[in-house]
Design brief:
By secondary structure, the protein is α/β, with parallel strands linked by helices. It contains 12 helices and 12 strands. 42% of the residues lie in helices and 20% in strands. α2 (47-61) packs across α10 and α3 (79-91) runs parallel beside α4. Keywords: Signal.
């Protein structure tokens, strides 16, 4: 009897083991490739954030050894919606969350606390300041990402080359997002080196931006658009008010060049997205832990100049800039 019981138990354990193996195999497609579920939270729609998403998708589509099931949800600029999306992705038990912009990333990190779901962020100026990671070199936890910190000194050099006599730079920022406030502080620290004074306007809603731009245009020599999502989404309103008073608008990124910007020594959000795709791949396929992967930054920039805007504003393009520029036609 004992032998029969032991034999039956062994058979049951063997079948149970076979059942678990079958469950694991369900993660693989018919061609043997494993499928990973990625949830993308995008804070709002505008070209830079769209490009950060498209760059990741482009990178992962180029990988032939795995498949990626990507679900994209947009918070439409609402932090509460971002929180809801993040919680839903956790409930859906995705394999990784890719969060685009600071508030979306904060929502993702908060929602995944206590879980093993990794977060890869993008379009965040400083992950430490935003309380996403412990440090950029050793993020810790289960979070890492790609910073869109603009090369501010390089851009101030560009503005000085364009406008040798300029004294004041106007800056608009969203008082509700850490990215903008941080960049304004950084530019203020650098400004004296280039003999600039910074005149800043904080806003709390998109509807306030046109008024802020009009006020600045009457008091500064140019406006510099930082990588602040609310501000970038309203670029056309800013250039409309500024250019009407012959005030040029420069930018940290090129997504809105055709909206009346004069120039940008620009980071590429598509390339930042591709960098994030590489990080996500390392975590999902190569088994790396997110918290062990240093936060990356932009590897290079491209100078874009809008010739038509330069002509309209009567601004001569310096030869030193024209030699390395990519010209944008409206």
């Amino acid at each position: 009897m004992k032998k029969k019981l032991l034999g039956g138990l062994a058979l049951a354990l063997l079948l149970a083991g076979c059942g678990n193996s079958g469950d694991s195999d369900k993660e693989k497609t018919d061609d043997g490739k494993k499928t990973y579920k990625i949830g993308i939270i995008q804070q709002m729609e505008h070209p830079a954030l769209d490009s950060a998403r498209e760059g990741l998708e482009k990178y992962l589509k180029g990988k032939s050894d795995a498949k990626f099931e990507i679900t994209v949800k947009n918070a439409q600029g609402d932090n509460g919606t971002a929180d809801t999306i993040a919680k839903q992705f956790v409930s859906d038990d995705v394999d990784l969350i890719y969060s685009i912009a600071t508030n979306a990333s904060q929502a993702a990190v908060n929602a995944t606390g206590g879980t093993d779901i990794p977060v890869v962020f993008n379009a965040v100026t400083d992950g430490v300041e935003a309380k996403l990671v412990t440090s950029n070199e050793k993020p810790g936890g289960n979070v890492t990402g790609v910073s869109d910190a603009a090369p501010l000194e390089k851009q101030l050099e560009m503005i000085r080359e364009f406008l040798p006599e300029a004294k004041k730079i106007g800056m608009i920022y969203n008082i509700g997002e850490v990215n903008g406030k941080l960049q304004v502080k950084q530019v203020e620290k650098l400004a004296s080196k280039y003999n600039f004074k910074i005149v800043k306007k904080g806003v709390s809603a998109t509807t306030e931006i046109a008024t802020a731009a009009e006020q600045l245009a009457g008091d500064v020599d140019c406006i510099y658009n930082i990588t602040d999502n609310m501000v970038v989404s309203a670029t056309a309103s800013i250039t409309d008010k500024a250019n009407a008073k012959n005030i040029p608008v420069f930018a940290a990124e090129d997504g809105q060049m055709k909206a009346g910007l004069l120039a940008s020594d620009s980071i590429s959000y598509e390339k930042l997205g591709e960098q994030a795709g590489s990080v996500a791949y390392d975590i999902l396929v190569n088994g790396k832990k997110a918290g062990d992967i240093p936060v990356e930054t932009a590897k290079d920039t491209t100078l874009y100049i809008n010739k038509k805007v330069a002509e309209q504003l009567g601004i001569k393009i310096p030869d030193s800039l024209a030699e390395r520029a990519t010209f944008v036609e409206e």
